[in-house]
Amino acid sequence: MSELDPRKQTILHAIIVEYVMTAEPVGSEALVAKYPLGVRSATVRNEMAEMLDLGYLNQPHTSAGRIPSDRGYRYYVDRLVIASELEESVKTRVRTAAGEGEALMLVLRDTAKALSQLSQLLGVATTVREMEVTVKMAVLSALGPTQALFVLALSNGHIENRMVECPPGLTLDDVGLANELLKNALFGKKLRSLSKAKAPVSASHPSMDKLIETVWGTVRTVAKEHTRGKLITEGEEFLFSQPEFRNDVAAFTHLLQELSSGELLYEAVAPGEDSTPVRIGKENRNEQMHNLSVVRRSFYIGENEAGVIGLVGPTRLRYSDSLPLVTFTAKVLSEALTKYLA
User: Fold this and answer.
1) Within a domain: residue 129?
2) Contact, 195 vs 227, CB < 8 A?
3) Same structural domain for residues 313 and 286?
């Protein structure tokens, strides 16, 4: 990412502040009139044109002002954002919500609701299940020329039996080699780490690689089934009231599809190998999330990660307010849950 000089940083910061407040493209004249930039509007226009070329700004229409791009928001979050200090009334509301219930799901729902109401965004919480379960045994047994039985034994006593299709031309020796490869790749591994892990590659032939990839798809499915927790959402009405979705039917339709699915929203928010606290627009893997940003933090029960609490909103959300709010909420939630459940 290209480093911006101080003037461009100031202009980018001002554009984001204005766009967050108005949801309207920002022009150079408006910036010069409102902010002490120390230069004329022509100079600001040139700087904005350069930032457009660098990918930090977008221009929705030929004659319109500029709006921040995902790259511009990322630069702002990483380098320019100044976290606001939470008011005592906000801290008290979060502490009260996190401390009112003794059941995990009740605490999470109350906390997500408070977070949503305080931010006027979608509050989300996810839980982690079967965090410490590992693979004790993985065996592939040939049942015929094109079928095999894959058995996966887990440390919690659960055993999965899945039928898999075998590519033609495999021998029993090939199945034996596949078992060695699977044993080395799976034995002792935490199930959670396997939900997105890549399949091992054999040094044999394409049919062997195809068999391993087929079995590995089964491993990923089992891992997701056993480690996926619950998804809680509160405050959908705040998200739907945002100008981006109220005025853009297509974006609103995509958002409805996303929220009705649940799976994609869980994947965007849930804990995993990527612990980035902020995902902006196209940094989200799924296209339906490209109009949204996710601010999230993990919470813990004792030393163990128990889930994620966060906010979902348009890329135009107030990162300077959302980041400290979510961070504080995760801290308080961890303290409350540890007290009740550890």
Assistant:
1) no
2) yes
3) yes
Query: Euclidean distance between the first and final Cα of the chain, in Å?
Result: 43
Helix (DSSP H) and strand (DSSP E) numbers for the chain: 14, 10
The last residue of one of the domains, among 200, 227, 254, is: 227
Of residues 2, 197, 233, 254, the one with CA closest to residue 108: 233
Domain count of the fold of the chain:
3
99 lies in the same domain as 158 = no
pLDDT single digits (tens) 226-269: 877 888 999 988 888 888 887 777 777 777 777 767 778 888 88
Q: Is residue 187 part of a domain?
A: yes
Measured CA angle at 215 (ends 211, 216), to 5 deg: 115
Residue 237, Cα to own-chain centre: how many angstroms? 21
Angstrom distance (rounded) from CA 329 to CA 332: 5
Q: Which amino acid is at 41?
A: S
Q: Report the predicted TM-score, pTM, of the whole model to 2 decimal places.
A: 0.78
Q: Are the C-beta atoms of residues 179 and 139 closer than 8 Å to each other?
A: yes
126 by DSSP, 3-state: which? strand
The angle, 0 to 180 degrees and rounded to 10, between the axes of the packed helices 88-99 and 319-341 is 30
**Structural domain includes residue 128:** no
Distances (CA, A) of 309 to 40, 123, 301: 44, 8, 13
On whether the CB atoms of residues 182 and 208 are closer than 8 A, the answer is no
The boundaries of the domain holding residue 263 are 88-121+235-341
**Are residues 331 and 193 both part of a single domain?**
no
Give burial (CB, 10 Å; 0-12/13-18/19+) of 148.
buried
Q: pLDDT digit string (tens) for 263-297?
A: 788 888 886 656 789 999 999 888 888 889 999 99
Q: Is residue 127 part of a domain?
A: no
